[in-house]
């Protein structure tokens, strides 16, 4: 009975609590992507066996088998790519810190990719020969860098969104700290006032440093393009900047704690 | 102490005597005088025993003295320890807590404290590098051409 009640409570909580619902959607989308990617790997293995046999025997049967397998592979490759794009779309939706204008840009990028991949999925069943398959696959290959760029740009935007969210929370707490400092001015000794003002200045400096890093990251995100290796280099470079920006926020949090202690005692 | 060594001739066996036609009579071995040990310069039994007696006597005296001391000490009534006068100090600990400010009791300050704790907690718990945010590698070469 107790178990049943707890399950009912969890179901109600999941339905009524929006954050939980959003999180569940993102997790579900990721699980779907994992399933589709596993399917893709299976199709790839099947295709590799079939094409090897065709090249070895060059028979009609092996040719037909290779054609069937390549059709499945091309469709599944696009499906896996699309599933990951949909997962990133969910991550954008649940992110609390991406500004609306940036959100719309990354949604558009992802929507374009999903549209392109859908075309590939629809074309796959109509492939009639291995030459046809090569042509359809070539379209995917030509778009591959753009697709990888869309993924990486969106991932960077999601990570920056989280940092923005924390920075916003930091701003809110810093405003409260400022109000408390102003309130305590009448009671505080000049020495204490000087200490509080120094903490406030340190906080402000740290915030400026964070903001500079965040702006730099924001300007670098659209530059993630070119071949995949180049994209990876830029992406790794950005990860370093993300780490530094996060460190600024962690230090800001410790300063807020110091300020709290300074305010607490005479 | 080593025993004096004596040299004895082994008696002839019965079969040998009989072989020579002699009667088998047991002849006792000739008794040889005990060898005289040369007097070594270090062996003085009298001095040794004197030393031992002295050591034992010294131990006995020491034991009597110690047991006597312990007996006297245990039979003596314990001395009364004079009570130490504790003077109360104004500061009970070496690091007194600082006085709380007026503002620390306000609801605004409490709200600020909670916000700081919550902000630190979520920031520390947040892992920037999400394992799910890794783009898939989709093999692009199909190698369809012979």
Helix content bin of chain B:
25-40%
Cα-atom radius of gyration of chain B: 53 Å
Number of helices of chain A: 7
Distance between the termini of chain B: 109 Å
Mean pLDDT of chain B: 72
Structural class of chain A: mainly alpha
Approximate helicity band of chain A: over 70%
SSE ordering of chain B: HHH
| Average pLDDT score of chain A | 91
Reported for the largest beta sheet of chain A, the result is:
none
Give Rg of chain A in angstroms: 27 Å
List keywords for this structure.
heterodimer, A: 266 residues, mainly alpha, 7 helices, elongated, B: mainly alpha, disordered N terminus
Summarize the structure.
Chain A is mainly alpha-helical and 266 residues long. Helix content of chain A is 89%, strand content 0%. Chain A has helices at residues 2-16, 18-57, 60-94, 100-123, 130-184, 190-220, 228-264.
Describe the structure.
- The complex is a heterodimer of chains A (266) and B (146).
- Chain A is an all-alpha fold and 266 residues long.
- Chain A has two domains: 2-126; 163-264.
- Chain A has seven helices and no strands.
- In chain A, helix 3 (60-94) runs antiparallel to helix 4 (100-123), helix 3 runs parallel beside helix 5 (130-184) and helix 4 packs antiparallel against helix 5 (130-184).
- Chain B has 146 residues and is mostly helical.
- Helix content of chain B is 39%, strand content 0%.
- Chain B is built from three helices and no strands.
- Chain B has helices at 14-20, 45-75, 107-125.
- The N and C termini of chain B lie far apart (109 Å).
- Residues 1-15 and 39-43 of chain B have low confidence and may be disordered.
- Chains A and B meet through helix 2, helix 3, helix 5 and helix 7 of A and helix 3 of B.
